[in-house]
Structure formats: C-alpha cells, structure tokens
Amino acid sequence: MWNYDAIFQKLKRNELNAVITVVEPEGGSGPLNGLPIAIKDNIITKGVRTTAASKILDNYIPPYDATVVKRLKEAGAVIMAKANLDEFAMGSTGESSAFGPTKNPHIPTLVPGGSSSGSAALVGGGYVPVALGSDTGGSVRLPAAFCNVWSLKPTYGRVSRYGLIAFASSLDVIGPIANDIDLLARVMEVISGPDPRDATSLNLPKFSYAKVREFSMRDRWRLGVVEEHLKEVSKEVKLKFESFLAKLHREGHEITFLNLKSGKFALASYYVIATAEASSNLARYDGVRFGVRVEGETLEETYIKTRSLFGKEVKRRILMGTFVLSHGYYDAYYLQALKVRRLVKEEVENWFKDVDLVLTPTNPTSPPPIGAGFSPVEYYRLDTLTVPFSLSGVPVLNVPLGDFVGVQVVAPFGLDERAVGFGRYVKSLL
After folding, report:
1. Exposed e or buried b for every residue in 176-209, given b needs 16+ CB within 10 A?
2. Do 115 and 139 contact (CB within 8 A), yes or no?
3. What domain range includes position 333?
4. Residue 423 lies in a domain
C-alpha cells in the first residue's frame, strides 16, 4: 500500500529542512496497517537520535520509546522520520531550531509555524500522511493552520507524556497532525489512554473513533464564537473565518457570541508559567548525566560551556523563568499568573453551559516570511488565540480553511471526540 522506499528517499532530500533524522522503515502490522508517520524530535525514540532540535542533545540516543511511540509501533505504524522543531519546542515559527528553519510546504519563503514545524510541513507537503507533534501554547494548532492540515490538541492528560522532553509540564500535550480527519481520529484512538508511567495521565477512556462518527452525524450544533478574538485577527483571517461561520449559519446551526474577559491577560500568564516551568525542566541539561558535554577546567566551567550550547530563544526563556521564580518576584508574577490561569479556565468551562462547541480563528495573521526579524513580543503574539485553551486544558481541533487560515474547534474538558466529530462533519462544507 505504501511505497516506503519512495517516502524514505523524499525525506532524505529534505527540501523543506523539516527532518532532523531519517529512519529506516521497519514494517508493522495492526490497526494502522503500516501507516508511515513522522515523530517530532522532542518525543523519545529507542535507538534513534532524539535532539529536541538542540545542540545540547546532538548525540543523545534514547534507550526506550515514549509511550505514544510504543503504542504506534504496536498498532503497526512505521516511523519514517524525526521532525524538525523550534529548539525544545520554544517558538511559534519553526526558526529557532539549531538545525535551521523549516520551510512552509506551500510557499517555502514563509514560516510553517511552530513549534511542531517539521511535523506540520511534512504532512502539508505530502511527505507523510500523519505526524505527531507536541502543543504547549499552540504548537500543533498554529503550524497546522499555516500548513493547511488538521491537528488536535487533546485534553491535558488524555495522551501520555511519558517520553516527551519537557518544556512546561503543566501545559505540554502530544497530539496528531494529519492530512485527513479520519486518519487523525484513528491515530488518536491508538495513542490515547491512561499510562501508569505518567503521573499526569488521566483515568479517562481511550479516544473512540466510533464516538467521532456518531458526533459527525448530528443535525444541529450550538456554536459559540469568542467576540474578543475577532478583534485580534487580520482582515484576511477575519474574512475567511466569517465566511465559514456564514456556511454554518446557512446549514441551520445556532451561533452565539461569547466573551473571554480574562483573555487579555492570558498571553502574559502563559509566558510566565511556561518559562518558569522551562527554567526548572532545563536545569537537568548540565553535561553530566546525558547529552553533549563540553569540558572545562572546573565543574562550574563545564556547566557554563555546556549550557552555552542552548540557542538564543531557549536562553531567553530560561532567564525569564528564573526571574519570575526568584525571591521577591515569585508572588508578583508567578502566583498572579496562576490566578489568571484559574480565571481563564473558569470562563472557558462556563461557556459550555450554553453551547456545544466554541469556534475561534487559530492564527491571528498569515504566516510571516522566514527571517522577518520581528521582536520576541511580536512572535509571542502569534499565540494569542491558542494559549487560553492551553491554560484551561481543553481539547482543540484545528480545521484547515485553506489559504493559511485555521479554525479552532474547542470542546469541553475530556470530550475530544465531540470536537473531532464536528470536524468530520464540516469537512464536507470546506
């Protein structure tokens, strides 16, 4: 069914710089029937180099598989590549990789979005039908929108994080990116479910493809639209999104406008929490236990020389995180950010008393050119529409509208199948 040699050779050419390591295919049998798949290179793969797109892990060969990788292999998927990403998943454009920027598969001079840049570019470019990414503040949704493909940020805890190289542990999730909604659902069914090796794994049932099909046959949906988010987007994105809403209205679905009053603080809250957790998680990269070691005359000098291998964006976030956790600033920044997170979560949860799903654009603008040279704050604003749902932990599907525009379909906590089922329904309207 699949020509693995042709896929392998195409991946080796790496015209989009979307691949860090090409993997010799090993045939599999099971429900996924030899499905070729790419894995974001911050997800551990036994015996295959895993770098998190950082020079500090350039020589790291893991001795075990992440739970999601193990489940994919057992289901018959064939791992073909480790995909490029923003270093340690810190970025929104795919440009902060130590191995160079990934190119957009449709217009190579544009960014593909980040941090799951390589995963989305490989799917969008037709290299593989599906890939795994990770999402901390929008990292499977934004690149999926920019590359015109489907993606799902699952409910936090629905998919095991065991074997995911941590960025921000209370926000990180692993999710699929695919060229087809049914394929996305089938992969999600395989990788979901409780895992005793992940303390944050929830005791929820495995994701059900059968439930997705049931939801996709619903006649009427009560849909909410976040009013504030329509003020945050470019004219092109707004027109595309409103055209999509008009189609849904003509189909007889009820559309209600909602408010997210705490949303104006969500981005700041996210970048305080995420950098604080990153500062803690990245302390382990010291050149002693694993990864690259740069020798110095003293142990302190070894630490300094080794950690100088971090890229500029990673260093920036470590510094920010260390600052907000430091004495005198912990209460002023970190605790305040946690309070905002709670407010966002409560507002999002309250929406679902009146609506079945919430719709909002995925990306505020079209993808910028590679090397545009924006300030860090301008790049961070690409996450404006995605971070509220990372803070609240709810499942979000990206529906590709084309022309580098995506729609987020937000469902209540734990009801991932509802979002994907709606996506399966609207596929016929696109």
Report:
1. bbbbebbbbbbbbbbbbbebeebeebbebeebbb
2. yes
3. 264-340
4. no
- The pTM score is 0.97
Looking up tokens 């920036």 gives 316
Q: Please say which residue of 293, 311, 340 terminates a domain.
A: 340
Residue 273: Cβ-neighbour burial (10 angstroms; 0-12, 13-18, 19+): buried
Q: Do 177 and 185 contact (CB within 8 A), yes or no?
A: no
Catalytic residue (choose from 40, 153, 240, 345): 40
Spatial contact of 379 and 114, defined as CB atoms under 8 Å apart: no
Catalytic residue among 54, 115, 201, 262: 115
Give the pLDDT of the chain (430 residues) as one tens digit per residue.
899 999 999 999 999 999 999 999 987 789 999 999 999 999 999 999 999 999 999 999 999 999 999 999 999 999 999 999 999 999 999 999 999 999 999 999 999 999 999 999 999 999 999 999 999 999 999 999 999 999 999 999 999 999 999 999 999 999 999 999 999 999 999 999 999 999 999 999 999 999 999 999 999 999 999 999 999 999 999 999 999 999 999 999 999 999 999 999 999 999 999 999 999 999 999 888 888 999 999 999 999 999 999 999 999 999 999 999 998 899 999 999 999 999 999 999 999 999 999 999 999 999 999 999 889 899 999 999 999 999 999 999 999 999 999 999 999 999 999 999 999 999 999 9
Q: What is the CATH number of the domain that holds 94?
A: 3.90.1300.10
Catalytic residue among 92, 97, 139, 392: 139
231 among known catalytic residues = no
- Annotated catalytic residue 117: no
Residue 258 lies in a domain: no
Residue 139 known to be catalytic: yes
